[in-house]
Amino acid sequence: MLQELIIFIVILIISNILVYLLQKQYFGRLQPLALRLFFVGVVVHEICHYIMNLAVGIKPEGIHFSWRDRATGGRNPHGSVQSKPRSLAQAFFICLAPLYLGTWLIFLTLTIALNSSNIYVMIISTLFFVSILSAAAPSSQDFNNIPRAFRNSPAHSWYQIFLVLLSGVTLWVILVNTQIIFPLDVYYYFSLIGIYFMFKFSFIGSKKVILSLKLRNFRKPHEAKIRPFFRHRYKPKKPLKIR
């Protein structure tokens, strides 16, 4: 898992460097080609956001791509996906979708380019590799959605953080005691997500049971659904005092 994390960080740094060089127009005569490759990367970037929205249970309001800046009319490839994450976890996954999914696409296109014997396939794969790499980094707006989602529901956000930590510790204990080694790092992430949902639905089920039994209302058993388990006690009224 550590190696995969390092790969994500390296791709994030390289992607930001390429965007910086593109904005400063350091590519010279290759600037028009670089802009077109970056536009393809932007399309992939926004599609990754769109797919992750659907994966976390949010139906996006729309997806937008643009070649030019509306204000200046200059060439400025950009895009957006209109969605409103309801929780911290949703905002986190949506934000990092281009980096995570883009990393797999980067390795896929690079593998095809290096192993193909067809010169045209090699060229096309290499161009896609550069395009996806240039736009793999989440934008500042993507990162801003994470604290915004936290502020919308701080209590629920802390609850989700607690579930992630609990799931991580549980997975670590299981791996240490069973000595299981997965062939691919992605299986560790799937296991972590599975344990997360196990705890989540366990807590939801426990909450429903508690609410159905109204355990919080033991002092008034006549208002609870567990009334048959309580013995009815006769409480005589005190006679009125004669003045």
Blueprint (SSEs and pairs):
Layout: H1 2-23, H2 31-55, E1 62-68, E2 75-82, H3 88-115, H4 119-134, H5 140-152, H6 154-178, H7 186-213
Antiparallel strand pairs: 1-2
Helix pairs in contact: 2-3, 2-4, 3-4, 3-5, 5-6, 6-7
Record keyword descriptors for this entry.
mainly alpha; single chain; 65% helix; two-stranded antiparallel sheet; 243 residues; globular
Descriptive notes:
By secondary structure, the protein is mainly alpha-helical. It folds into 2 domains: 2-152, no CATH class; 163-231, no CATH class. It is 65% helix and 6% strand. It is built from 7 helices and 2 strands. Strands 1-2 form a two-stranded antiparallel ribbon. A hairpin with a 6-residue loop joins strand 1 (62-68) and strand 2 (75-82). Helix 3 runs antiparallel to helix 5 and helix 5 crosses helix 6. The longest helix has 28 residues, at 88-115. The chain is globular, with a radius of gyration of 27 Å. Residues 224-231 have low confidence and may be disordered.
